[in-house]
């Protein structure tokens, strides 16, 4: 049970599940006094070697090394870890699949769920989770739903993975800069309207200082969604970028630079340096993800989180990423492998060390809403991260389609709009059929 | 391939040379054993070649007629992938970009020949310079790409800082549609210079002195000597370099992927192989990627065949 949640009880539960997979008996109160059964039953893994493939930075490695060591100790299994850098992961995993050497447990991108589930690469772990008596409600609903697939649509149906994390993409501001400029600090509960935001950004802009500097690929979503538009319909069958709401959002986004000039110039912004400039304290508003927090804690100015500026709908919006941990359908030790996935996703101590390292927010809802919020470390308004994860974060458009090509296509020529060579509306009208063709292809490949 | 089989050649020669002058009716034990050894020598690289080159090559031809996505087994779809390739604007653009990069080949060859001529003179520090120019060749392409990526940074890059010294306001090289390809070409030339230079140097040193002496006696100017002696004498090396550079150039990938990971602004730096890789691994279209790879292979083969034909014709004319 996730009930009184400790590493030992989790392993007790899942260890027992390994012994008697499918028996609901162990789903009961395995919470505390089950240490003897934990060590006893967990020995089911003795002599077994599992391979676990993932990608990640040093902090994550450390946290997971710890978790894996504990898992090995309690189950007696050995975990062979394969780490790759982010760029190579996908290629390497695909090669492993083609070569029939799929790791027992591995990271799965949200966008791969449909293809991997449909082709039987990843295992449906719903029964194992139920057998282990795990209270899946303790993990972010969005995180679990991201790996559900019902044969047609992602987001519902059986579970094919557990979240390694959820990544709320929040909005931050440089408190020190705003105070110095004598601008009233933004309200953490009442988002700016676009007009208000642009006004503040303009006021902040002067020599070697800019109001903002947002990379279109990761920040446009907040504008588009909050204006009631989207890249495609809910079923992901029709591309909907040619609506007036979409055009309005894109144009407003572009005008922050084109009209207001409150961002670094095209040359300055394109060199990826708005990130550097933000860290040097030259930029007023900048996105913040949980993975940035460890770096941003070292900054020599004060910063905090606020909701994204709002368009027509008056509702703030942003995306919520996730990466999953899945189990190979071909694993020889399905129960043990599922346990490992569950352990990596939901073990308390691992989650604690990850949020303390400033790498992610806890996967466990009660931990995120409890000790995480109470934690002294920056940012002060951690609540915003939690709200995104719980209430208003949305999946990136390509997360639920067969392949990301239709969505990737959107970004290739977008610079023309940002440079003011073409208006948003004209450009979008021309993009719609191109993207629609690719989305149709993807849906056809998915057999839907 | 030719390089890997080279060690086998002497053994084979020794084996055939070993029997004494009157050929025995029955092959001797030694003869057979040496033949076996020779075969073993040849077999090793041959097996590698079959497994890692011919095997995948044949399979990719097959895959190009299927909808293989690398997750499930391929289904035959006939020529659909090829039809898609001909109608795909990104394929055309990436093909164009790839051949655009080849502008760097003649420039690189001219530069390396000039360098080789300079290095061929007796001058102090000669071997130092030879080594310096060869360093990029032995450096890791990934590391070199990252280095140049920094050098091309619009704000702080070394290239623009250098340009600033002469009063030129440099562009944001890798982010600008009109400069990203030249930027990559410059880097490719720099990287390949040492290799071509070395080959040219070897060729220059094997040109018989007597030719130059005879020409000098006939009163030929240095320009004429270069044009009528040096250039024709190093022509085999030029031919070799052009052929191998075009083959390698059509496969340009690493520097594109590292320096412009999204294919550059408006797809202006994406090469064919980069696009093939992306379709195969990001977009689950290994079948389609294979079709494009086959088309690229055919194209490169045709170009190479044409070069050989051209070379043979020129050589013939030379004799006349």
Automatic annotation (TrEMBL), chain A:
<dbReference type="Pfam" id="PF01547">
    <property type="entry name" value="SBP_bac_1"/>
</dbReference>
<keyword id="KW-0449">Lipoprotein</keyword>
<keyword id="KW-1003">Cell membrane</keyword>
<dbReference type="InterPro" id="IPR006311">
    <property type="entry name" value="TAT_signal"/>
</dbReference>
<dbReference type="InterPro" id="IPR050490">
    <property type="entry name" value="Bact_solute-bd_prot1"/>
</dbReference>
<keyword id="KW-0732">Signal</keyword>
<keyword id="KW-0472">Membrane</keyword>
<dbReference type="InterPro" id="IPR006059">
    <property type="entry name" value="SBP"/>
</dbReference>
<protein>
    <submittedName>
        <fullName>Sugar ABC transporter substrate-binding protein</fullName>
    </submittedName>
</protein>
<keyword id="KW-0564">Palmitate</keyword>
């Amino acid at each position: 049970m996730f009930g009184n949640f400790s590493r030992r009880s989790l392993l007790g539960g899942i260890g027992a599940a390994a012994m008697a997979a499918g028996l609901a008996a162990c789903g009961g109160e395995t919470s505390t006094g089950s240490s003897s059964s934990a060590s006893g039953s967990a020995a089911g893994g003795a002599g077994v070697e599992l391979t676990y493939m993932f990608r990640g930075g040093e902090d994550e490695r450390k946290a997971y090394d710890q978790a894996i060591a504990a898992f090995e100790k309690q189950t007696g299994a050995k975990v062979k870890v394969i780490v790759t850098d982010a760029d190579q992961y996908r290629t390497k995993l695909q090669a492993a699949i083609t070569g029939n050497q799929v790791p027992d447990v591995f990271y799965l991108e949200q966008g791969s769920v449909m293809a991997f589930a449909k082709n039987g690469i990843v295992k449906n772990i719903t029964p194992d989770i139920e057998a282990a008596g795990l209270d899946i409600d303790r993990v972010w609903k969005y995180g679990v739903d991201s790996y559900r697939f019902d044969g047609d649509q992602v987001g519902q149906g059986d579970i094919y993975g557990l979240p390694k994390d959820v990544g709320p993409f929040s909005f931050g501001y440089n408190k020190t800069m705003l105070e110095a400029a004598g601008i009233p600090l933004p309200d953490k509960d009442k988002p700016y309207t676009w007009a208000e935001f642009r006004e503040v950004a303009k006021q902040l802009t002067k020599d070697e200082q800019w109001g903002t500097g947002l990379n279109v690929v990761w920040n446009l979503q907040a504008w588009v969604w909050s204006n009631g538009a989207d890249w495609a319909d809910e079923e992901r069958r029709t591309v909907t970028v040619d609506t007036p709401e979409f055009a309005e959002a894109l144009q407003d986004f572009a005008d922050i630079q084109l009209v207001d000039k409150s961002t670094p110039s095209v040359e300055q912004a394109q060199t990826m340096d708005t990130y550097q400039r933000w860290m040097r304290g030259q930029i007023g508003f900048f996105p913040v993800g949980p993975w940035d927090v460890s770096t941003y804690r070292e900054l020599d100015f004060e910063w905090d989180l606020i909701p994204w500026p709002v368009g027509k709908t008056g509702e703030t919006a942003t995306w919520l990423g996730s990466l999953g941990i899945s189990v190979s359908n071909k694993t020889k030790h399905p129960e043990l492998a599922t346990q490992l996935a569950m352990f990596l996703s939901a073990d308390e101590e691992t989650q604690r060390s990850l949020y303390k390292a400033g790498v992610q927010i806890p996967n466990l809802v009660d931990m995120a809403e409890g000790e995480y919020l109470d934690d002294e470390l920056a940012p002060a308004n951690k609540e915003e991260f939690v709200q995104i994860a719980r209430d208003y974060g949305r999946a990136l458009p390509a997360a639920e389609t067969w392949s990301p090509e239709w969505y990737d296509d959107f970004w290739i020529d977008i610079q023309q709009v940002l440079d003011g060579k073409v208006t948003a509306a004209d450009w979008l009208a021309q993009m719609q059929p191109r993207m629609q063709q690719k989305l149709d292809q993807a849906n056809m490949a998915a057999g839907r | 391939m030719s390089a890997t089989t080279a060690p086998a050649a002497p053994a084979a020669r020794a084996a055939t040379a070993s029997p004494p002058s009157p050929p025995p009716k029955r092959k001797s034990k030694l003869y057979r054993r040496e033949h076996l050894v020779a075969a073993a020598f040849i077999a090793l690289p041959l097996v590698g070649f079959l497994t890692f080159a011919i095997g995948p090559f044949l399979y990719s031809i097959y895959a190009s007629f299927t909808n293989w996505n690398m997750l499930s087994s391929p289904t035959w779809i006939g020529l659909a992938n090829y039809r898609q390739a001909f109608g795909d604007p990104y394929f055309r653009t990436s093909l164009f970009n790839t051949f655009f990069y080849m502008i760097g080949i003649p420039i690189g060859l001219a530069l390396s020949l000039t360098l080789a001529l300079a290095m061929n003179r007796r001058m102090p520090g000669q071997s130092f310079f030879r080594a310096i120019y060869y360093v990029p060749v032995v450096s890791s392409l990934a590391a070199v790409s990252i280095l140049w990526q920094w050098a091309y940074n619009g704000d702080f890059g070394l290239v623009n800082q250098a340009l600033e010294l002469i009063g030129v306001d440099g562009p944001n090289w890798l982010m600008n549609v009109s400069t990203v390809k030249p930027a990559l070409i410059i880097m490719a030339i720099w990287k390949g210079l040492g290799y071509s230079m070395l080959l040219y140097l070897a060729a220059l040193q094997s040109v018989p002195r007597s030719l130059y002496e005879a020409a000098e006696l006939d009163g030929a100017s240095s320009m004429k000597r270069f044009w009528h002696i040096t250039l024709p004498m190093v022509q085999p090396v030029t031919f070799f370099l052009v052929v191998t550079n075009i083959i390698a150039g059509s496969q340009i990938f690493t520097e594109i992927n590292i320096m412009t990971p999204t294919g550059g602004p408006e797809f202006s730096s994406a090469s064919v192989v980069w696009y093939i890789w992306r379709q195969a691994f990001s977009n689950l279209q290994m079948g389609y990627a294979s079709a494009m790879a086959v088309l690229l292979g055919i194209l490169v083969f045709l170009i190479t065949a044409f070069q050989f034909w051209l070379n043979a014709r020129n050589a013939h004319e030379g004799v006349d």
